[in-house]
Amino acid sequence: MINIEDFFKVEIKMGKILSAEKVEGSEKLLKLMIDIGEPTPRQILSGVAKAIPDPAAMVGKMVPTIANLEPRMMMGMESQGMMLCADNGMPVLLHPASEVPPGSVVK
Q: Using the 8-state DSSP alphabet, how is residue 6 labeled?
């Protein structure tokens, strides 16, 4: 359990997927470029490749991201955040019910 103060430390923002491709040498990872309303897109590595047969189909989709997560090196690349998904045995992308601009804060 975490307290509400800890929860409020997490910055969740909506991001628009600009590109998506499989990471060479990995069965799980996709490299995503995501616009979260900043001057430059974020590179986010996500372990959803097994659930997404056609990564190009993700382009243009809006997804919730954690924007203030410390960067992490994965497969020699820096991941600059995290895309949130539901887990139904396989990752399931989450989308807003209506269009919102990149960078919209999730509360």
A: H
At 71-93, the pLDDT tens digits run 999 999 999 999 999 998 889 99
Tokens of 92: 């399931």
Distance from first CA to last CA of the chain, Å, rounded?
19
Among 86, 92, 100, 94, CA closest to 36: 100
pLDDT per position as a tens digit, 32-59: 999 999 999 999 999 999 999 999 999 9
Provide the 3-class DSSP secondary structure of residue 23: coil
